[in-house]
């Protein structure tokens, strides 16, 4: 163990109240940083998840609105066989959207019939977990309707409804189930069928109206959608992504991130100042000892190292304590801040990389803070100390 | 014997605002290796400044300083620290022991500055010095747990740790009672004989100076007398 390190350790051990003070200020600062950081990150994840988790993140549609996408199986084939996309795209599924009118009693309701390849699109929409009654449509000419519409129109599973298509055809469809997507607009305006039913009703032939995708990292959606547009190079289609469609949400998230970073920066600045001022006092208190050490031949560099090591050691202890405290706070928050149904207000996601980064920042800040006292210890002239006795 | 410290035409002044005080006037002085000397003078005479210049803690505005054959008035700071560490031992009026370390660790400190792993011989030497100054009973106590006399003895042992050729002592007993003062002088004499260490003791007390072999008297920055006993 080098002498500066040894002296630093002893200074820390024997100035217990100052050391505890510094460690506490680092620990509290870092715990706040970790807690707020994790909270904001989790909040954003859950916000993004609830906004786009159950929907398409990249959508291929026809450039001409309302016209179908032809040769869609070729497009799906092309994307799913490209190894570059295999890693980035989780799910890929065709869908057919067509407006329908359901006459029930005296009212005529306009709905959007959405036809899916259930096998391919279930991972995107999680139909099964949203069915509250009945089953998915298993046969042609079966549909599933939303909770709200079922209530308003007084419909239930097993009943049949008369449907007018936009092309003025009449169809009788059987209700196979009722879904609840927790979004009232969807619950009152969507009807869901298999691909063929929607294709027949909408007169799509074998075409579809869109190809929907979910990606591994939702914030890569825009980049991937641009790559797909380039790969397909098809003038009759366009590739949309959720980021362009939800610019407001993204601006909001960005504002939140910036304010979170601001808080974290100011916390670090406050912690750094606290460490620097306490260590500066240590230099004053220890000036006699430092003076004699220098007189005895301790070089300026090693004298400065004593204080840098103090910053480093205090930083490491403070960062460890702070990480423990911050994670503890986060777990407590996840455990005690819950909704009435027992689920956490913000489902907490522990980003250990962020915790590690926060710790490294704290340790760096402590070392940086100790540069000021280290410099004043370097400029300390031993004869000043000895002369003043 | 050869001169271990040679000062030639040393001038030192301090400036305070526009005022300039000359503390040392053209000092020429040298000390033989192994000699036991004192510098006396009233406070403000410049004796401590002179000692600090000999200990390379302070720099004169002009003049030459040679320590153990090496001109030190124009070498770099790191080398100065090395010379202080290896060739000079300091004993001050206040002991300045590090309160966070034991008596034994304080004695070992000057060695640890150049080499953080003491060898067996070095540790043995530290023990011997502790024995020599008579604090072996409390060597594992923290420095703060020793009496004033014991602390000053520890400071002497520490000054001897790297086997320096010169010990510079500034009022080494200024803070002690008469019995401890007696002990310390007996000890310094003993060390001088045993290790042939050159001693330069700065004091304002003529009775203490009388017990050394050479008395250099300073007044207002000039040497006014230089008496050798033998």
Summarize this entry quickly.
The complex is a heterodimer of chains A (389) and B (230). By secondary structure, chain A is α+β, with helices and mostly antiparallel strands.
Explain what you see.
The complex is a heterodimer of chains A (389) and B (230). With 389 residues, chain A is of the alpha+beta class. Helix content of chain A is 58%, strand content 19%. Chain A folds into 2 domains: 3-50 and 249-387, no CATH class; 58-244, no CATH class. Chain A has 17 helices and 10 strands. A 6-stranded mixed beta barrel of chain A has the order 2-3-8-5-7-6. In chain A, helix 1 (3-14) packs across helix 14 (300-336) and helix 12 packs parallel to helix 16 (371-378). Chain B is an alpha/beta fold. Chain B is 35% helix and 30% strand. In chain B, the strands form 2 sheets. In chain B, strands 6-7-8-3-9-10 form a 6-stranded mixed β-sheet. In chain B, strands 2-1-4-5 form a 4-stranded antiparallel β-sheet, covered by helices on one side. Chain B is globular. Classes of the chains: A alpha+beta (389), B alpha/beta (230). At the A-B interface, helix 1, helix 13 and helix 17 of A face helix 2 and helix 3 of B.
Largest interchain contact: A-B, 27 and 30 residues
CATH C-level name of chain B:
Alpha Beta
Tally of extended strands of chain A? 10
Task: Give Rg of chain B in angstroms.
Answer: 18 Å
Alpha-beta content class of chain B: alpha/beta
Radius of gyration of chain A: 32 Å
Number of helices of chain A: 17
- Poorly predicted ranges of chain B (pLDDT <50, ≥5 residues)? none
**Inertia-based shape of chain B:** globular
CATH-defined topology of chain B: Rossmann fold
Strand content of chain B: 25-35%
Q: Tell me the helix content of chain B.
A: 25-40%
Tell me what portion of residues of chain A adopts beta-strand conformation: 15-25%
| Secondary-structure element series of chain A | HHEHHEEHHEEHEEHEHEHEHHHHHHH
Overall number of strands of chain B: 10
What multimeric state do the chains show? heterodimer
Largest sheet of chain A: 6 strands, mixed, barrel
What is the fourth-level CATH superfamily of chain B? P-loop containing nucleotide triphosphate hydrolases
Low-confidence stretches of chain A: none
Total helical elements of chain B: 7
């Amino acid at each position: 163990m080098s002498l500066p390190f040894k002296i630093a350790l002893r200074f820390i051990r024997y100035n217990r109240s100052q050391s505890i003070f510094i460690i506490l200020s680092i620990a509290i600062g870092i715990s706040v940083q970790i807690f707020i950081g994790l909270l904001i990150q989790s909040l954003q994840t859950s916000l993004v998840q609830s906004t786009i988790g159950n929907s398409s993140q990249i959508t291929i549609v026809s450039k001409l609105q309302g016209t179908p996408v032809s040769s869609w199986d070729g497009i799906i084939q092309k994307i799913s066989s490209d190894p570059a996309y295999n890693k980035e795209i989780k799910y890929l599924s065709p869908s057919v959207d067509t407006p329908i009118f359901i006459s029930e009693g005296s009212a005529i309701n306009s709905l959007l019939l959405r036809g899916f390849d259930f096998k391919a699109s279930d991972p995107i929409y999680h139909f099964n977990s949203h069915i509250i009654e009945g089953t998915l449509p298993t046969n042609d000419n079966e549909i599933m309707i939303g909770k709200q519409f079922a209530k308003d129109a007084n419909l239930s599973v097993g009943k049949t409804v008369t449907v007018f298509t936009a092309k003025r055809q009449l169809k009788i469809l059987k209700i196979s189930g009722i879904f609840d997507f927790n979004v009232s607009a969807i619950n009152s305006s969507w009807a869901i069928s298999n691909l063929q039913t929607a294709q027949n009703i909408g007169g799509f032939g074998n075409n579809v109206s869109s190809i929907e995708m979910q990606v591994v990292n939702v914030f890569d959606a825009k980049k991937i959608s641009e790559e797909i547009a380039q790969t397909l190079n098809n003038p009759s289609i366009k590739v949309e992504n959720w980021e362009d469609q939800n610019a407001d949400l993204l601006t909001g998230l960005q504002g939140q991130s910036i304010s979170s970073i601001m808080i974290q920066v100011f916390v670090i600045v406050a912690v750094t100042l606290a460490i620097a001022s306490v260590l500066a006092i240590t230099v004053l208190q220890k000036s006699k000892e430092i003076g004699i050490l220098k007189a005895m031949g301790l070089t300026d560099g090693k004298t400065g190292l004593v204080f840098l090591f103090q910053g480093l050691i205090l930083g490491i202890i403070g960062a460890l304590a702070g990480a423990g405290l911050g994670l503890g706070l986060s777990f407590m928050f996840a455990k005690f801040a819950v909704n009435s149904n027992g689920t956490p207000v913000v489902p907490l996601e522990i980003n250990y990389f962020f915790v590690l980064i926060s710790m490294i920042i704290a340790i760096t800040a402590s070392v940086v803070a100790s540069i000021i006292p280290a410099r004043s210890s370097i400029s300390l002239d031993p004869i000043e100390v000895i002369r003043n006795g | 014997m050869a001169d271990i410290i040679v000062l030639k035409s040393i001038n030192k002044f301090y400036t305070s605002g526009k005022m300039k005080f000359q503390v040392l006037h053209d000092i020429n002085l040298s000390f033989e290796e192994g000699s036991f000397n004192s510098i006396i003078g009233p406070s403000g005479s410049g004796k401590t400044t002179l000692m600090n210049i000999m200990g390379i803690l302070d720099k004169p505005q002009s003049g030459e300083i040679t320590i153990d054959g090496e001109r030190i008035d124009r070498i770099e700071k790191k080398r100065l620290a090395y010379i202080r560490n290896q060739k000079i031992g300091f004993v001050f009026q206040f002991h300045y022991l590090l309160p966070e370390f034991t008596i034994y660790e304080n004695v070992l400190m000057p060695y640890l500055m150049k080499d953080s792993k003491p060898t067996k011989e070095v540790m043995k030497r530290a023990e011997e010095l502790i024995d020599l100054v008579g604090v072996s009973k409390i060597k594992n106590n923290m420095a703060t747990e020793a009496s004033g006399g014991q602390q000053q003895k520890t400071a002497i042992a520490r000054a001897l740790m790297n086997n320096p050729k010169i010990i510079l002592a500034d009022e080494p007993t200024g803070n002690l009672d008469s019995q401890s003062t007696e002990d310390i002088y007996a000890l310094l004499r003993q060390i001088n004989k045993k290790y042939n260490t050159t001693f330069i003791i700065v004091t304002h007390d003529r009775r203490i100076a009388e017990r050394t072999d050479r008395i250099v008297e300073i007044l207002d920055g000039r040497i006014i007398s230089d008496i050798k006993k033998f």
